[in-house]
Write the structure tokens for this entry.
Amino acid sequence: MNTQMQTFVALSMAIAVPCVVFATDCWINVNRFCCSTLPDGDLPNLTRPGCPDSITSNPTISHFDRAGNGVIGKLLKVPSDDTVKCKWDVYEINSNGICVYSYSMERFCTPVGTAGGPCTGQPA
């Protein structure tokens, strides 16, 4: 086989084999509860001693996580247009020291999928 033919065969094989990029920003799809994806300032207070808030709606949504070492994922995170809500009742301790319902809260959480070319996660 001449040099020109070897080059053609090598290039043909490179094109035919899908390329997997090693990336630190490589994402996999996971399911999460809506409320767990909210920023810290928007979370219900579930740890208030003696008077925690009460979650009333916390659907599971598609979300993302960083691909672990050697795990195949995708290069992009893509937010959805879906509107999903985390809802909770806020409780407060009144002047008599009793935990009482105060008001209801709701916050939108955004389902996020993955897209783009394949990648492989790297060690953290």
The mean pLDDT is 83. Residues 20-121 form one domain. The chain has one domain: 20-121.
